[in-house]
Design a protein that fits this description.
The chain is built from 43 helices and 14 strands. By secondary structure, the protein is mainly alpha-helical. A hairpin with a 2-residue loop joins strand 5 and strand 6. Helix 2 packs across helix 3, helix 16 packs parallel to helix 19 and helix 26 packs across helix 28.
């Protein structure tokens, strides 16, 4: 055995897995980590009878050394060889020579030897990869080591030396299996060091079920559970292990397992820390998110030195945080970015940046910011927790041991900043904001004032050019003084002058001296900033000024070029020219090609200009209406491409605009998710105008996909709540009914069934009062059926679902009809009418299939799988679930994927496979699922049943206790079942 624990073979260079690839066409290849097979020139060779294959394997595993005939006879038949064993060996050798070709099998000293090409045997390749993984880990490259181990384990293709007779094969199989388990344990250990504990729980659960006495696997499972926030289950694993070892072997757990239990009991902080960031299977990302520094950065020497010295101390400081405060336009961001770029050598592991939108409403959500940072650091979406506290903890853990700079720009207050701080040596944070953050513990506070006259003139000179300033120095001093020495104001004025070669500095100074063009007096705070913007605005051409005013009316973080063209009622080409000139004046920013945004204070000033200059006020409303009429038909087109045959689009309010067209569904969805924040902001903004109310509500219907996106679901819910309240206040029953039905759908996805039922009930009153809305009638019945099912009211579910079927059918909405048929089938299954249920769901599948709706057909297969499992047709049920899983994976339907894993776990448990059931249940927990806490409790209940069947009562009890708590919190009837399950395990 070598250091990696594998069979001793000469060190070989790494090769591809044992199946041949395009580059294998001119050499022999062999596999023993599965059936014994051979290839030559990329084509499979016939290895012959089991004994002949056994002889080939024995020769391959001797690594080129000669095996005598007697040794081969012993390998093949052990102590009872047949009478003609020697003749048989010679026959096998002759046949192998013919199959493998000349030079492969040699006769030497009364025996035989294989001359296999370097890297041609899969066990050699696997060993080489394992050795390289060990070296990579020793060198600190855990991620690389994990990748190499995964490649080594990937060479296994079932049972080694499969179907070979003889004692040699049995012995080798046992050795290979022990080696494989050791590699798996090492790879899982690396998973935990890399922070992939949530994903590891599922695999470890299955492995501990298959190898219950292997303590290292139990130890890894305890640690994975603890790091996943499941402390009670982790401790229960120890209890189960101690009991099992005592019963089976009469021994106590090994010392490492006991020490881990004590650490978990004491909530040892070190246990919760992964060694490096949670980035499996790829090189550690080094984010470089800093915005570009300006080439003409000027002055601020004292501040640059002060901040740079603070950042240089980050390696030994617990939390190196510097917070810059000052009025808008004073240059906080420019200074912070400049210092951050200069400090990059001190932070080789990356730099993170985020505009916290502190002067906007609402400001950036810390949870959203943390999600963005974690993704930039390589954390997969499925491993990012829900709450801001959990995300902040994972963020700090991911940064531990790394040297990363975090630049938090435009912060609202200390409360917004605290969850975003690294908090570990080696990292640092720069924070900018308008308020002085005296309550940010440990922060080095810097108050940034306006430039000195000398610095202001130097900045002006760098932009305009030294020759023009040198000949008109006094006029230049007048300009920077009129700008109040604010850097942003100076940059705007100087940029205008630089772009107009016919102007002199005196011309600009005379314009600024005109008090009609700026405020009478420069004051501190916002008025000073407003005066700065007035300088640039007063120099705009009429069309530029109109564009500046109208685009400032739109909420949202930015605006796309097509949306801006709609607001301005101009062609895209003309709009682009206008907006680029505004970018040149620094009144507008372009964060990416075709996207534009305002500095938050510039937006406020633009709106003030619109209120002053866009008269009558109806012009402002018309601009916002054009934006809504752009988003509504475009979102409707996305909806229609995703759901062919769905009649929702036909029931939306008419829009005056035509919107965008798309060439593919992927392009359409990309647009929707890119525009998500702007779309939802448009909804919120339009709700205050009665003439726009119905279209705003319908935009929510068309953008329904945003409710299923983890990144946008909260904002979508908030917009839907606002739509409901606005419609109610306006007395618009039509809009209110649609908003309440949409909110019902949101609550169902979150598992908040009581709230969903309340909204649906109120929507039903509105529907009764106005029966002319086919969309409301059919969709509301369908949602009420779903709620009834989840609340255990199966007869009501059938009634509502059949009513939905009729309403959808009358409307010609075949996808809706299919959905309602599948929902009705669920109720019939619960009431024991399985045959009827299968008939209904097959009818729904036929509708989906006829429309070519692959994803919706997967939803129907999910429902059919449930019906078949209740009919105890478990193999057929698993086949349907598996087909659904493949579609959900392909379409990135994470919540449906996790929910299907749960149903597959139920089938495996029903068929006496608790190990597989536990693994699938863990996959459901780590992947995500539809139904919120209620569904989590369902999954934990099944997981507890599987673990109990695996003789792990301690952990099963922990699962059931958590499930009981969730059921009681949601008022679910299933709490009674869990109490019964817990009774035999009561202490």
């Amino acid at each position: 055995m070598d250091r990696a624990g594998g069979p001793r073979v000469p060190e070989q260079r790494a090769a591809e897995p044992h199946a041949p690839g395009p580059d294998d066409s001119h050499r022999l290849r062999f596999s023993v980590l599965g059936p014994v097979r051979a290839w030559r020139d990329g084509a499979p060779l016939p290895p012959g009878s089991p004994q002949q294959r056994a002889m080939l394997a024995a020769l391959l595993l001797r690594e080129g050394r000669t095996a005598t005939a007697a040794e081969l006879i012993d390998v093949l038949w052990g102590e009872e060889p047949p009478a003609r064993a020697l003749a048989a060996v010679r026959t096998y050798a002759s046949r192998l020579r013919k199959v493998l070709g000349p030079g492969a099998l040699l006769s030497e000293a009364g025996g035989y030897a294989m001359r296999a090409p370097v890297g041609s045997l899969d066990i050699q390749v696997a060993q080489d990869l394992a050795t390289r993984a060990e070296k990579a880990r020793a060198a600190g490259d855990r991620r690389g080591a994990r990748t190499l181990l995964g490649q080594s384990l990937g060479l296994w293709d079932g049972e080694p030396l499969a179907h070979l007779p003889g004692p040699f094969a049995e012995t080798q199989r046992a050795r290979f299996e022990e080696w494989r388990l050791g590699l798996i344990e090492t790879r899982l250990d690396l998973d935990l060091e890399l922070g992939c504990h949530a994903d590891a729980v599922s695999e470890l659960t299955a492995l501990t079920a298959a190898y219950p006495l292997r303590e290292r696997l139990r130890e890894l499972l305890m640690l994975a559970l603890y790091r996943s926030g499941r402390q009670a289950e982790a401790l229960a694993v120890y209890t189960d292990t101690r009991r099992l070892l005592a019963e089976e072997l009469g021994v106590d757990p090994r010392a490492e397992l006991t020490e881990l239990q004590h650490s978990i009991l004491n909530a040892d902080e070190e246990l919760a820390r992964p060694v490096v960031e949670a980035v499996p299977d790829r090189a550690a990302p080094r984010p470089a998110q800093l915005p570009a520094t300006v080439p003409d950065f000027t002055g601020r020497a004292v501040f640059v030195t002060e901040l740079s010295e603070r950042l240089a101390l980050a390696e030994t400081s617990v939390m190196a945080v510097s917070a810059l405060a000052g009025i808008g336009g004073v240059g906080k961001t420019t200074l912070a970015v400049h210092v951050a770029h200069a400090a990059r050598p001190h932070f080789p592991d990356g730099q993170l940046y985020m505009d916290l939108q502190g002067t906007s409403f609402p400001a950036a959500d810390p949870a959203t910011v943390l999600g963005s940072f974690l993704r930039a650091l390589g954390t997969p979406d499925r491993s990012i927790p829900e709450t801001v506290e959990e995300r902040a903890a994972l963020f700090r853990s991911t940064l531990d041991g790394r040297r990363v700079l975090v630049l938090l720009d435009n912060a609202r207050d200390a409360a917004q900043v605290r969850p975003l701080l690294p908090g570990t040596p080696g990292c640092a944070a720069l924070v900018t904001g308008r308020t002085r953050m005296v309550d940010l513990a440990g922060a080095h506070l810097v108050d940034l004032d306006v430039m000195s006259p000398e610095e202001a003139l130097e900045l002006f000179t760098k932009i305009v050019g030294p020759h023009r300033v040198r000949v008109e120095r006094e006029a230049a001093l007048d300009v920077v003084a009129a700008c109040g020495f604010l850097p942003l104001a100076i940059r705007i004025a100087a940029s205008r002058l630089a772009s107009r070669r016919t102007w002199t500095v005196s011309v600009l100074a005379s314009k600024l001296a005109d008090e009609r063009r700026r405020l009478d007096e420069l004051q501190a705070g916002d008025l000073a900033v407003k005066a700065t913007f007035e300088l640039g605005y007063g120099q705009l051409e009429p069309m530029q000024a109109r564009a500046f005013r109208l685009l400032g009316l739109a909420d949202g973080p930015d605006i796309s070029l097509p949306a801006a063209a709609s607001v301005l009622d101009l062609s895209v080409e003309v709009t682009e020219d206008l907006l680029e000139t505004l970018v040149d004046t620094s009144l507008l920013e372009s964060g990416a090609p075709g996207r534009y945004r305002y500095h938050d204070l510039v937006r406020l000033y633009a709106r003030a200009c619109a209120e002053r200059d866009e008269l009558p006020p109806a012009k402002r409303l018309e601009a916002l209406e054009r934006l809504l009429d752009f988003y509504l038909p475009t979102a409707a087109r996305v909806y229609g491409m995703e759901r062919p045959g769905d009649r929702t689009v036909a029931h939306l309010e008419s829009a005056r605009g035509s919107g965008l067209s798309f060439t593919s569904g992927a392009e359409a969805l990309d647009w929707l998710f890119t525009e998500a924040a702007s779309i939802l902001a448009c909804v919120q903004q339009s709700l205050g105008q009665p003439v726009l109310l119905r279209r705003a509500v319908d935009l929510l219907l068309a953008a329904k996909d945003l409710s299923e996106s983890g990144a946008n679901s909260r904002a979508y819910e908030a917009a839907t709540v606002s739509a409901r309240d606005a419609a109610q206040a306006a007395g618009d029953a039509h809009a209110e009914g649609r908003a309440r039905t949409t909110l019902t759908q949101v609550y169902i996805k979150a598992g908040r069934f009581e709230e969903a039922d309340e909204e649906a009930g109120r929507a039903a009153v509105l529907e009764d009062a106005s029966r002319d809305d086919a969309w409301l009638r059919s969709n509301l019945s369908n949602e009420r059926g779903i709620i009834a099912f989840c609340q255990g009211r199966y007869a009501d579910c059938e009634t509502f679902s059949r009513a939905a079927v009729e309403s959808f059918r009358a409307d010609g909405n075949k996808p809706g009809e299919a959905s309602a048929l599948c929902n009705a089938s669920r109720a019939l299954v619960a009431m024991g009418r399985t045959a009827e249920a299968i008939e209904l769901v097959r009818a729904g599948m036929a509708l989906y299939d006829a429309l070519g709706l692959t994803l919706r057909l997967a939803n129907a297969r999910f429902a059919l799988g449930i019906a078949l499992s209740h009919a105890e047709r478990f193999a057929a049920a698993m086949a349907e679930f598996q087909q659904a899983v493949e579609v959900f994976e392909e379409n990135r339907q994470r919540l449906w994927l996790g929910t299907t894993y749960f149903r597959m776990a139920q089938v495996q448990l029903a068929t006496g496979r608790p190990g597989q059931a536990a693994q699938l249940a863990e996959q459901a927990l780590s992947t995500g699922f539809i139904g919120g806490d209620w569904m989590r409790a369902n999954i934990l209940t099944e997981l507890g049943k599987a673990l109990n069947a695996l003789s792990q009562p301690g952990r099963s009890r922990a699962c059931w206790l958590e499930a009981l708590s969730l059921y009681e919190a949601t008022g679910a009837d299933q709490a009674a079942e869990v109490r019964l399950l817990l009774e035999p395990l009561a202490a």
